[in-house]
Amino acid sequence: MIKFFGIIVYKSKCITEYYSKDKVKLFLAIFFLIAGIILPSFVSIRNSAKREVESRQYELDLVGEIIKGSSFQEKIYLPKHISKYGVMFATYGRKNTGKIKIEIIQGNKKNSKIVDVTEIKDNDYYYLNIKGLKSGEAILRVEGINGTIGNAVSMHKTADIMYNEMIQNGQPSHRSFVQKILFYEYDGIVKGQIIFTILSVICYIYFLSLLGNEEKNNRKIYVSTVLLIYLIVASRAPVLTFKVEPFAEQVFNFLYNARTYGVFKNLTLMEGGYLPLFHRIIALMIVKLGFNAKITVYLMSNIAVVVVGMMVSVFTLNRYRKYGDIFYRFVVCMVFGAFGISTYSETHTFITMAYLNIVPLFCISLLDFRKMKRWRFVLLMLLVFLLVLSKFLYVVLLPISVAILIFMWRKLVNREKIYLGLVLLATSIQILYAYRNKDLWVNENRPELKVSNFISNVLHQSVQQFVNIFNSGIDSSQNILNLNILYLMIFLMVLVFLLYLIIRSKSRESIIILCLVGITFGVSSINVLSRIWSGNYELWSNSLGAINMWHSILIKVSILLILVLMPYVMKIDRRFNRSPVMIEYLSYIIIVFLVIRFSPLKNETIYKNNKIASDWSIYSKFYDSGKYLIPVEPFFTSENEKISYIGRATDSFLVKTYQGQKYFIENLRDLDAITEISLPYPMKIEYLYVKRIRDYNFNKIKIVGYTEKGEKILDLLQLNKSEREYIGFHNTSSKVEVSKLEFVMENNNKAYVIPEIFIGEPLK
User: Model confidence over 378-426: pLDDT tens digits?
Assistant: First the structure.
């Protein structure tokens, strides 16, 4: 340990000596450490640890006026690291006088307070004195001191019994105080985030120590960048790294097919209407290792993050030195790899990682193929073919590659022609494949799209993505027409400026910028034609297109890559090169902008473990059995099970995309929660999944099943931890037929669940 800290001290001295010569670079290095690593990780850890538990207001009522002699008592639970505990009062909308006594009793400890009722707000929480109390059970008691009828406050009570029922004037009420608890839970996930944050800082310090000799340490710089990307993603997205939860097609498409079919058939299977060759090969390589489902999905998710890091970190290699100093290129890599230009679920999951393939394709386009060894060129071209055959949106490269081949044929060297030819071949294969399988995914009932609407939509959506990069605040807000017009004018002015640079420089980089502009409009065109994006004459009065979604990733990446190339293109232009200091400081400004804009301080990088339907650490064992119904965010996957949805009619995504039988119960339509449900027919329940009313609970839920005659025949405890919002049950004695289900907590109090229940029955 002493040796380890000695190395850290030595590396720190090396960094200080290197950066003491350039105060600006020292500032940027410290700025990135704070704004790019420490602060976002702190926010992420804090938000992961923060818990807020609140009673649902079911069958809400008042206890009556708290007058002299009235008393209310309830057993409550105080979690660890509690910050606030509140109880909801009511004033009847009037000013009352008098006093009440509130006390919390825990063993020999008693926190008591005489409260002047003028301090109490109507229909609001009054936070109690919890100082000195330990975690565990306690008794909350409220007594009236001198209140009188017509001049006293009251308390709310609810049928949602969070921990235990309230005793009102010595009698059971079958109700509970309306409560709100704020606390922090430092569970395994939070501890893991802290560890990965510390490792991130250490890795960054090591990275900085390498910059004194960039040429000698270049491979180490690349590897440390990849590692740092992984560590930062792990600290902010546990569901993708050390606490893995699978996402969508990762299980029921890639995992299932790789396990079920041979190599050749896998290479020809579709995903979402296109050929995902890049993903298929990676999935096959992982699955053929022969691990169980839990470990396989763990490897798939983690390798996806590593692959993203490896792809985007290429820009740190020495061959890209002319495009900016090493720290500038490092920040660019971190923005795409660690910060993300969208949520991690749209760029870093196994099924979405290929949206960032545009970054290595961009880097490859910058290379001089003539100086490359033959075997490296062959491997690189093979990689290009796979990168392009990963997502359908890459067909946008077809007209671009054709245009370059036609108009620049004489200026291209043979290897450049091969490169463009492979892109042309891969995109052509993708188009032919999608066309041959169009019956499986094309919606023939799409409304007619007029040319004027098409142009307006394409331009609007392109502008909105441009706006989103420089003004993220409009993501979910309505945008006024004048503001959109202003950004449109700025966007067009930028396009004119880019065309000016392209015409003047006539360099490889200027051609690449032109291609990136083509990708921007090309992807927008595909999205409009496919009706992913649509609008009418009022389109310019809102910001619909600025919503982050994977269909816009290529657009945002293209715009950012143009920004990245700007300092270099301006440097090689004689008119701008007259002020090299200005160009250098432009790169510094870009660094600061990228870090501030994309460093995820809002912690919107990924979904949280306790809020999603999947619980792979538990449910994966069912997958290995070959007989299962399992939620995989945001769908279900099943095999050898008859699956049914029972509950209210709803447009929720989970229900809408559900592929089994649906039974809509009319009397549940307007209910937000239930404690019991009658099944449409006697069911042999093997699997059952339901959503609790809270994402954190102090008791687990049981389901109790009854026959048509009211006989109790089923008693199952939820499989997952109490803090999970979505919970699951597995019945190993599935021969019994259940007609009615009741939901209760472990202490047999009523438990409330959302009236959306998914059941798996064994096939005959």
Answer: 999 999 999 999 999 999 999 999 999 999 898 899 999 999 999 999 9
**Identity of the amino acid at 36:** G
Q: How far apart are CA 14 and CA 10, in angstroms?
A: 6
Instruction: Write out the H or E segment, with its range, that includes residue 639.
Output: strand 635-639
Q: Please identify, in words, the CATH class of the domain defined by 56-177.
A: mainly beta
User: Would 56-177 and 609-762 be classified into the same CATH topology?
Assistant: yes
Residue 607 has pLDDT above 70, yes or no: no
Entry pTM: 0.90
Give me the pLDDT at residue 475, please.
47
Q: What is the pLDDT of residues 537-573, one digit of tens each?
A: 567 776 554 455 778 889 999 999 999 998 888 887 7
pLDDT category, 333, cuts 50, 70, 90?
very high
523 contacts 393 by C-beta, under 8 angstroms: yes
Q: What's the length of the chain?
A: 764
Residue 489: phi and psi, rounded to 5, are: -65, -40
**Which letter does DSSP use for residue 448 in this model?**
P
* Domain boundaries, given as residue ranges, for the chain: 56-177, 447-572, 609-762
* Amino acid at residue number 432: L
Q: What is the 3-state secondary structure (H, E, C) of 492-525?
A: HHHHHHHHHHHHHHCCHHHHHHHHHHHHHHHHHH
Task: Tally Cβ neighbours within 10 Å of residue 17.
Answer: 10
* Distance, CA of 594 to chain centre: 20
H-run or E-run covering 435: helix 414-436
The CATH number of 609-762 is 2.60.120
The β-bridge partners of 78 are 136
Nearest one of 265, 256, 310 to 283, comparing CA atoms: 256
Q: What is the pLDDT of residue 576?
A: 63
Q: Do residues 603 and 47 lie in contact, with contact meaning Cβ atoms separated by under 8 Å?
A: yes
- Over residues 478-498, the mean pLDDT reads 80
Mean pLDDT (the chain, rounded): 86
Nearest CA-CA partner of 574 in 638, 504, 637: 504
What's the pLDDT tens digit per position in 85-143? 999 999 998 898 889 999 999 988 888 899 898 989 999 999 988 888 898 889 999 99
**DSSP secondary structure of 255-286:** IHHHHHS-HHHHHT--BTTB--HHHHHHHHHH
Calpha distance 287→741 (Å, rounded): 39
* Location of structure tokens 């600061």: 592
CA angle 401, 407, 412 (to 5 degrees): 75
Could you tell me the strand order of the sheet in which 676-683 lies?
676-683, 738-745, 701-706, 712-717
Assign 211 to helix, strand or coil.
helix
